[in-house]
Amino acid sequence: MAGKQMLNIVKMKRMKQDGDPISMITAYDYPSAVLAEEAGVDIILVGDSLGNVVLGYDTTIPVTLDDMVYHSRSVARGAKNTFIVTDMPFMTYHGSIDETLRGVSRIMQEGHAQAVKMEGGAEIADTVKRIVQAGVPMLGHIGLTPQSVNQIGGYRIQGKDEADAKRLLEDARALEQAGAFGIVLELVTEEVAAYISSELSIPTIGIGAGRGCDGQVLVYHDVLKYTSNYRNKRFVKTFGDIGEQIRSGISAYVQEVKTRQFPAEEHVFAAEDGVLDNLYGKGKAEIHS
Fold first, then answer.
1. Given pLDDT bands bounded at 50, 70 and 90, which one contains residue 286?
2. Is 258 marked as binding a ligand?
3. Was 119 annotated as part of a binding site?
4. Average of pLDDT values for 148-175?
5. Which of 75, 103, 181, 245 is the most buried (most CB within 10 A)?
6. What positions does the entry give for Mg(2+) binding (predicted)?
7. Where are the domains of the chain?
8. In this model, does residue 278 exceed pLDDT 70?
9. What is the pLDDT of residue 62?
């Protein structure tokens, strides 16, 4: 978007205070980032969901730090005026703080992100504090945490009972106190997500967490049905169906190649007069043309 001003964490907090919802979408490559920026999105998340969506894994767990750096750098080239948050992948922030900071440094310096995102609550608060002290903006992520899918027993809705709701609130407060500039709430009941949002001074960004969050995030490929055999999700609204357009477009191309309709006359280039005669000899040019 021409003349777009990049968002920053101070403006995001002001947006929460003013009741101005924050729009976030994932992107994993240069063309997706270009289009997202042109559409006016506030924040681009280079999520480790690229493992499921782009790399063909069943979960996000196989995604590496190298993967995240590569895709973050691609997105940064396409969205120079949009705030970019990049995920720290599985097990890259649960070891020593030195190892964690090296990974964060790669995301910021090589991946050209403006912030990192990490899954977890009170258990990672000390790590979050050290990252923020190092000068790196950090976005939290609680509720359903895909990197822990094997531990929590699958993709289950969070905050359905009192104990779980209390845990989520405690996690959110711990992240806020540690210096996180915002928190993603994933697959959290609407009532609990709204209450958590009201209790925090930092913005919440929901995905499957209802209408009370300070912003919303969806996966690029879900918004546009950019896949084959798309599986509908209750918390997702699709706004286009480019998957079908891509499939039908490629099918038409294949058909025209098979029937020799493509390339047509308007798609080819002609040599200068006499080139074939000089190349093959007079009288033989027609055989080769």
1. low
2. no
3. yes
4. 87
5. 75
6. 48, 87, 119
7. 9-223, 246-288
8. yes
9. 96
CA-nearest of 54, 21, 24, 29 to 39 is: 24
The pLDDT, as a whole number, for residue 279 is 81
Cα–Cα dist 87/140, whole Å: 10
Question: Does the annotation list 199 as a binding residue?
Answer: no
Q: What angle do CA 75, 81, 87 make, to 5 degrees?
A: 40
What is the per-residue pLDDT for 229?
83
Residue of 186, 190, 191, 244 marked active site:
186
CATH fourth-level superfamily of 9-223: Phosphoenolpyruvate-binding domains (3.20.20.60)
Taking only the tens place, the pLDDT of each residue in 191-214 is: 999 999 999 999 999 999 999 999
Residue the block writes with tokens 């896949």: 227
